[in-house]
Amino acid sequence: MVEGKGWREGREQEKWEEERKGKKKKRKGEGERRGRGEEEGGRGGGRAEGRGGGKVEGGGGEASRGGGGGGGGGGGGEGGKAGGGGGPVGRGEGGGRGGSGVGGGSGRGREGKQGEGKGRRGRGSTDLGSRRPVPTSPSPPPFPAAKYPAIKALMRPDPYLKWTVTAMVLAQLLACWLAQGLAWRWLFFWAYAFGGCVNHSLTLAIHDISHNTAFGTGRPSRNRWFAIFANLPVGLPYAASFKKYHVDHHRYLGGDGLDVDVPTYFEGRLFCTPARKLLWLALQPFFYTLRPLCVHPKAMTRMELCNTLVQLAADATIYALWGLKPMVYLLASSLLGLGLHPISGHFVAEHYMFLKGHETYSYYGPLNWITFNVGYHMEHHDFPSIPSCNLPLVRKIAPEYYDHLPQHHSWVKVLWDFVFDDSLGPFARVKRVCKLAENRL
Q1: Please, which residues have CB within 8 angstroms of residue 221's CB and are 6 or more apart in sequence?
Q2: Which one of 96, 117, 264, 385 has the largest count of C-beta atoms within 10 Å of its C-beta?
Q3: Where is this chain compositionally biased, Gly residues type (predicted)?
Q4: β-strand pairing of 362-363 with 407-408
Q5: Which of residues 161 and 34 earns the better pLDDT score?
Q6: How many angstroms separate the CA atoms of 95 and 101, rounded?
Q7: Which of the four pLDDT bands, split at 50, 70 and 90, describes residue 77?
Q8: Using 50, 70 and 90 to split pLDDT, how confident is the model at 191?
Q9: Which H, E and C letters describe the chain, residue by residue?
Q10: pTM of the model
């Protein structure tokens, strides 16, 4: 008994069928035809019937639509090409176990055409030497984690993240208290120079916490509540909604109607000149907040409600204790820091196509020190569960996967190029059509 190569024998059966059809063009259009063939030296005779495959009787087992190779069994193609034999047959091109290799067979096809005849190697032939070698393609390079087990050891909570975030929240609350005696012009200056950096960094800490890197994947509730705590100086509820939508960004990167980081058609058409693109960058916090409501609205969750109530209570407390200026300072820090600010260059640097064929870029400059290593973006998308503090180690362990890729060297230059390069704009993103989004519409 000979183990047949199912996929190759099915391919030969199809070629034989095409030759037979060429000789019988004059009979095209006739009704269903039935033929009979027996397979010698294999596992049982068997009869295949059904539309495009069906059940295999006599030899045992079942054949799925389209036939296919597998452990055994005859296979056929969609449209009634079936070979006898036993055993389970998968979907695809067929062939099976048996001495005749391809084998004959009977079956009823969709188009009423049925093949009958011998396999290419003849009935009962078991000559393996007559087969051509199976074409093989080179296997893809292993993923970094498979090649370097040390990377898996980096997938652990960041023990310092909770303390770093707590210190930043307290520092911003202290700045609020100091803002009471500032003149308005100095208030906005410090909101841009200091508060903008802190609040933008806190939003990136929330990004890190949304991947459960503060307390680990086994304690998701603690991570969510800690993200709400980190949200307090931002002034507006943000953490719970970000968590809800950021999962889609990783799962459907660039997915039209699913990844809400991709600008809308309206943004691309309107903000297409240098002056308009500059305005678009300045208004980035508003678009980032409102875009999900237009692109992929989702029902409000309990955590979002809790986030909103806690944030409103914190804002009301700050206003009651220290007055208007501290609240203006917090909100200005968020709007200015997430708008036209050097740190905001990472919004554009991460996924806008500065080079054709490359949609994700990393940045390894000094601003990573105050942005929780968000610049290591290629590494982050490869390993979302690795905390930001360990992302530089990923590149150090597996440099051959990252060092040769295009990278940015300055977020300020990224913003400059985005504004003044006509080939860049909100449309300079890879957009994919996702069936999930189509089914939702």
Answers
A1: none
A2: 96
A3: 55-107
A4: parallel
A5: 161
A6: 7
A7: very low
A8: very high
A9: CCCCCHHHHHHHHHHHHHHHHHHCHHHCCCCCCCCCCCCCCCCCCCEEECCCCCEEECCCCEECCCCCCCCCCCCCCCCCCCCCCCCCECCCCCCCCCCCCCCCCCCCCCCCCCCCCCCCCCCCCCCHHHCCCCCCCCCCCCCHHHHCHHHHHHCCCCCCHHHHHHHHHHHHHHHHHHHHHCCHHHHHHHHHHHHHHHHHHHHHHHHHHCCCCCCCCCCHHHHHHHHHHHHHHHCCCCHHHHHHHHHHHHHCCCECCCCCCCCCHHHHHHCCCHHHHHHHHHCHHHHHHHHHHHHCCCCCCHHHHHHHHHHHHHHHHHHHHHCHHHHHHHHHHHHHHCCCCHHHHHHHHHHECCECCECCCEECCHHHHHCCCCCCHHHHHHCCCCCHHHHHHHHHHCHHHCCCCCEECCHHHHHHHHHHCCCCCCCCECCECCHHHHHHC
A10: 0.68
Q: Which amino acid is at 118?
A: K
Residue pair 418/277 in contact by the 8 Å Cβ criterion: yes
Dist CA 402 CA 362 (whole Å):
9
